[in-house]
Amino acid sequence: MTGTTTAVLLAAGAGRRLGRGPKALLPFRGRPLIEHQVEVLLAGGCAQVVAVLGAGSTEILASVRLQDAVPVVNPQWELGMGTSYRCGILAALAREPETSVLVALVDQPGLTPAVVSRVLASGRPGRIAAAGYRRPDGELRRGHPVLFDASLAARSLEPDTRYSGAEHAGEGKPGVDPDSGARAFLAAHPELLDIVDCSDLADGRDVDCDADLALLD
Question: What is the pLDDT of residues 12-56, one digit of tens each?
């Protein structure tokens, strides 16, 4: 895939299930996790990072060193990750309409520059490349980060009748699942997706519950 890549780092959640405040502020190697993730994305080859904030945004903006990342506060973050996904994609394309977009999650401390670099190198025009990780049974499952060609990043926000019911009537809501971002778009278009095996570089695990806190050690 030619041209530059903008990383969209989804970091707006409150981490309610974990109960330790916003995941962006979880301590990792002596600093907030979001600082580490921004550094990883830039080191892996992304030209710029759009960090989508929500819960704890005031504290993050006041106390966290985001390097050259562009912070974008999602006022609707409580409605689900899909609103942060849309916010980040729109911000990335507004800054650089022809950029490809790499979507990453703040709560994956195992993400490395090597994973980012491999996914970027696998990108092709008109395609989506996603890091894949093998389960214990050997099955390769899609994970993050996910790289969208610029045209497909925009297309993933188009209306989808599965998410245009009464609750969205007259509101002009996008077609992304309000809870899961682009998952529905990816599921509806498997022919566009290339899964890149990154199992030798990371495990793709999220910090979702107390048992996962070991990932921060």
Answer: 998 877 767 899 999 999 999 999 999 999 999 999 999 999 999
How is residue 50 annotated by DSSP?
Answer: E
- Reported as a single tens digit per residue, the pLDDT across 90-121 is 999 999 999 999 999 999 999 999 999 999 99
pTM exceeds 0.70, yes or no: yes
Identify which of 141, 149, 121, 148 has the alpha carbon closest to the alpha carbon of residue 206: 141
Query: Distance between CA 4 and CA 90 in Å, rounded?
Result: 16
Query: With contact defined as beta carbons under 8 Å apart, do 148 and 90 qualify?
Result: no
How many Cβ atoms are within 10 Å of 134's Cβ, its own excluded?
Answer: 15
Q: What is the dihedral of CA 156, 162, 166, 172, to 10 degrees?
A: 20
> What mean pLDDT is predicted for residues 168-190?
65
**Contact assessment for residue 174 and residue 97, using Cβ atoms and an 8 Å cutoff:** no
**Among the listed residues 148, 147, 101, 149, the one whose alpha carbon sits nearest the alpha carbon of residue 125:** 149
Beta strands in 70-179 (DSSP E): 70-73, 100-105, 128-134, 140-148
Q: Is the Cβ–Cβ distance between 96 and 148 less than 8 Å?
A: no
Q: Which two tokens stand for residue 206?
A: 């999220």
